[in-house]
Design goal:
By secondary structure, the chain is an alpha/beta fold. Among the domains are: 166 residues, 3-Layer(aba) Sandwich (Phosphoenolpyruvate Carboxykinase, domain 1), CATH 3.40.449.10; 239 residues, Alpha-Beta Complex (Phosphoenolpyruvate Carboxykinase, domain 3). Helices cover 24% and strands 22% of the residues. It has 14 helices and 34 strands. The strands form nine sheets. The chain has a nine-stranded mixed sheet with strand order 3-4-9-10-11-13-12-7-8, with helices on both faces. The protein has a six-stranded mixed sheet with strand order 17-15-16-26-30-27. Strands 5-6-21-24-20 form a five-stranded mixed sheet. The longest helix has 19 residues. The termini are far apart. The relative contact order is 0.08. Keywords: ATP-binding, Cytoplasm, Decarboxylase, Gluconeogenesis, Lyase, Nucleotide-binding.
């Protein structure tokens, strides 16, 4: 032991006999050479002279994860620099003002990174003489944050967007501003030569018209706003998993929240697809933080969502609710796809292990999400689909689920999908733990989660399947007079598809609750562009061609209306759906009901036979008859909107559809 501070003879250390200038003993260190107990584990110094250089070493350049075809195909490979230049020229052209012949100066990257020297690109016009004075916005750079990853978008949202937080499970919680839902009365479509004869206009139509000049005014307002910003987010993505019919979309937005939302909801391109993206088929200009001009023709509020199908453009002003982009593109698909003889559908879709596909239609509260999500079947999609000659395909790359009162027990798949990468809209959470309270409605009842479809464990990737075997129309009948399940003829399928019925429970002034019928054409009236009978005729044609069967399933009340009867038990409904999937319900014996003329089975395995005919469950038969006739009258009154539209040879198809409705 070297108690006097001298070396111990092992070469470990020594104070020596002398002292330092400050009077402290000198410390001498040497390396143990004999048995390697002490060794030098220091590495060479980092190859950086400044902290910025050190940080630059932290990130490596992204490389494509898919092979580049090289000289195969129509185009020879081009350099990264030229490809990036072409990308920026395309984006600059998208952001070009209609009154100027060039787009803004654009450069990739975050303007906060001051060390980067911008290399701008403008939309090329080599011999351009300006006809108007140069604006301030044309003198500045617009930084393009192009197809950022979720991690990068998290950083942007947390840094720059107030109200953005990371929740306990890793999701990004954000706020959509004053608007927490869609604004259907502020959504307009340009009526011009392109749309005059094609679109559904007039009574009952969701299409509110505007002229092209007004659209261009709003477009200019949106583009000028976006160009005035230091940075904008640009997403280049796809719609429709069918490779023969996919649509290229470009979304230009001002918020990381919007960019991440669309990253999740649209189909994400591979690096190779992105490099060869080219010119988009449709462009969204989301300037939702900026209002429209109330003095502009057609404007009734500070919000306007405008579609121009001839220009293939959409403009959003005065609302930051991200669902406007999703449903706006769905409306576009409802226009573009039928022109290719492809049926666009507001439905859920799943597939059994034997390849049998089922479509689920239903309004809010009917159980569409619950019943189409089946752990024994693959999920193709939860909301938007196409039915082409190739089969069915999901339009989207993600899911947009309601979160109000969400629980792990009721919706385990949605619960588990709320993790890193997911956008949570307008939810309430604990300020310290960031645990979300899904029952809280302080901001809105319309709380939502947007996540990639691959977050669902049994999602089928790619999201395509063969032709459907079953078409299931769901109704939550709070009147309690529709049977739990009915087999439909083609004409009946068309009639109930066009009707799009469910019933909600509403409170009266005295607090007495009673059913309120709700009809939404094609189970998505707010999004359809053509007359409902056109979609219905396409549906019937495809069902007949591919041998699909239509079913009407009531997930609502039995034994009386709401307040006196009881909700049909979910296990019974699941047994019915299972019997539809297996094909056993096709082999059942049927009888026809009065008034609606529905074919109902005598028995279904696992379901009490007495509930299959609703009249059996009512103790007051007179009350049943009266309620049945009341609902039938509501159906007839609703359908009167569609009777003036004639389809089929000699209007035969229209007459067949009308005859398939209630008869009394």
């Amino acid at each position: 032991m070297a108690g006097n501070g001298n070396g111990n003879g092992n070469g470990e250390f020594s104070f020596g006999n002398g002292t330092a200038r400050n009077g402290l003993a000198k410390i001498q260190t040497t390396h143990k050479k004999q048995n390697g107990i002490c060794h030098d584990d220091s590495g060479p110094p980092v190859n950086a002279q400044t902290i910025d250089e050190l940080h630059s070493l932290q990130k490596k350049k992204s490389a494509p994860t898919t092979p580049i075809k090289g000289t195969q195909g129509a185009f020879a490979p081009i350099s990264d620099e030229l490809r990036q230049k072409q990308q920026l020229q395309s984006i600059s052209a998208s952001l070009a003002s209609l009154t100027r012949e060039t787009g803004p100066k654009v450069v990739k990257g975050d303007p906060a990174r001051k060390s980067e020297t911008p290399k701008h690109v403008t939309h090329e016009h080599h011999h351009f003489t300006p006809t108007i004075s140069v604006s301030d916005s044309s003198l500045k750079f617009t930084h393009i944050l192009y197809n950022l990853s979720p991690a990068e978008l998290y950083e942007q949202a947390i840094k720059y967007e107030k109200g953005s937080f990371i929740t306990e499970t890793g999701a990004l919680a954000t706020l959509s501003g004053a608007k927490t839902g869609r604004s259907p009365r502020d959504k307009r479509v340009v009526r011009d030569e392109t749309t005059e004869d094609d679109l559904w206009w007039g009574k009952g139509s969701p299409n509110i018209e505007m002229d092209e000049q007004t659209f261009l005014v709003n477009r200019e307002r949106a583009v000028d706003y976006l160009n005035s910003l230091d940075k904008v987010f640009v997403n280049d993505q796809f719609l429709n998993w069918d490779p023969e019919n996919k649509i290229k979309v470009r979304i230009v937005s001002a918020r990381a929240y919007h960019s991440l939302f669309m990253h999740n909801m649209c189909i994400r391109p591979t690096p190779e697809e992105l490099e060869n993206f080219g010119t988009p088929d449709f462009t969204i200009y989301n300037a939702g933080q900026f209002p429209c001009n109330r003095f502009t023709h057609y404007m009734t509020s500070s919000t306007s969502i405008d579609l121009n199908l001839a220009r293939r453009e959409m403009v959003i002003l005065g609302t930051q609710y991200a669902g406007e982009m999703k449903k706006g593109l769905f409306s576009v698909m409802h226009y573009l796809m039928p022109k290719r003889q492809i049926l666009s559908l507001h439905s859920g879709c799943n597939m059994g292990k034997d390849g049998d596909v089922a479509l689920f239609f239903g309004l809010s509260g009917t159980g569409k999400t619950t019943l189409s999500t089946d752990h024994n079947r693959y999920l193709i999609g939860d909301d938007e689909h196409c039915w082409s000659e190739n089969g069915v395909s999901n339009i989207e790359g993600g899911c947009y689920a309601k979160c109000i009162d969400l629980s792990r027990e009721k919706e385990p798949d949605i619960w588990n999908a709320i993790k890193f990468g997911t956008v949570l809209e307008n939810v309430v959470f604990d300020e310290h733990t960031r645990e979300v309270d899904y029952s809280a409605k302080f901001v809105t009842e319309n709380t939502r989660a947007a996540y990639p479809i691959e977050y669902i464990p049994n999602a089928k990737i790619p999201c395509v399947g063969p032709h459907p075997k079953n078409v299931i129309l769901l109704a939550c009948d709070a009147f309690g007079v529709l049977p739990p399940v009915s087999k439909l003829s083609l004409a009946q399928t068309m009639y109930h598809f066009i009707s799009g019925y469910t019933a909600l429970v509403a409170g009266t002034e005295e607090g007495v609750k009673e059913p309120q019928a709700t009809f939404s054409a094609c189970f998505g009236a707010a999004f359809i562009m053509l007359h409902p009978t056109k979609y219905a005729a396409m549906l019937a044609e495809k069902m007949m061609k591919h041998g699909a069967t239509g079913w009407l399933v009531n997930t609502g009340w039995s034994g009386g209306s709401y307040g006196s009867g009881n909700r049909i038990k979910l296990p019974y409904t699941r047994k019915i759906i299972d019997a539809i999937h297996s094909g056993s319900l096709l082999d059942a014996n049927y009888k026809k009901t009065e008034v609606f003329g529905l074919e109902i089975p005598i028995e279904v395995e696992g379901v009490p036979s007495e509930i299959l005919d609703p009249v059996n469950t009512w103790s007051d038969k007179n009350a049943y008859e009266g309620t049945l006739l009341k609902l039938a009258a509501l159906f007839k009154n609703n359908f009167a909107t569609f009777t003036n539209y004639k389809i089929g040879k000699d209007n035969k198809l229209t007459k067949e559809i009308l005859a398939a409705g209630p008869n009394f």
